[in-house]
Amino acid sequence: MSRSDKIDHIAHYIERANQILANKDVDAAKEFCDDVIAVFSVEIDQLTQNLTRYWAFDSSDINYLKDVKTLKVQLENYSVNIQAGFVKQVPNSNENGGTHIDIKNDVNNQISINLSFDQTIDQISQMSEDQLSQAEKDKLKSELLDVNMAQRRGESKKSIWEKVKPILELLITKGADVAMTAMPYIIEVLQKAG
User: Fold this and answer.
1) pTM for this one?
2) Torsion sign, CA atoms 30, 48, 86, 95
3) Which long-range contacts (CB under 8 A, 24 or more apart) does 145-151 make?
4) Per DSSP, which regions of 5-91 are E strands?
5) Under a CB-based contact definition with an 8 Å cutoff, are residues 8 and 75 in contact?
6) pLDDT of the chain along its 194 residues, tens only?
C-alpha cells in the first residue's frame, strides 16, 4: 500500500468517526472501536491507552462515543505523522503482499506487550459472572494495570514479581480458564523484565 493509499485508508476511518459522532450512534461507535483496534493496534503505539472500554470498572462507565473521539484524534495524528515522514513503511514479506508499518524499531517489544495487555484486559472484561465477579474483574484489571505500568517504567524483575504474586493467588483460586487468560501476559512481562 502506498503512502497516499494509507492516508486515504485512514481518512475513511476518520470520516466514519465523524458520522458516528454526528449521529451519536452508540452501537456503531462500539463497532468502530473494535474495527480500529483490530486494524491499527499494531501500527499505533498505545492506541487503546485512554479508551474507557479498557479502564472502566463497570460496563456502565464505558463511553463508546468518547472512545470514538479518542481514536479519531489518534488516527488524525497518525495520518499527519505519515505525511510528515515520521512513520517508515517497510515492505512485508507475507504472501498477501501487504505493508507492515514500522513506527520505531526500538519499541517492538513494547508494542507486543501492549497488545497482549489490551487483549488480556478485553478477555477479562468479557468473562461471565460465573467465572469472575465484577469486583474480581475490577481488582484483576487494576493489578494487571499496575504490572503494565511497572513494566513501562522499566522496574526490575523482582519489583514486577512482587506485583504479580497477588494476581497469581487470585488466578489459582479461579481455575484453569481464568488463569489461562492472564498467564500469557504475565509470563511475557516477566521474561522481558530486566
Assistant:
1) 0.48
2) negative
3) 145/55, 145/121, 147/186, 147/189, 148/113, 148/117, 148/189, 151/113, 151/189, 151/192, 151/193
4) 88-91
5) no
6) 678 888 889 999 999 999 999 999 999 999 999 889 888 887 888 888 788 877 766 677 789 999 999 999 999 988 888 887 777 653 333 333 333 444 443 444 444 444 477 788 888 888 888 888 888 888 888 888 888 888 878 888 899 999 999 898 888 888 888 888 888 888 888 888 76
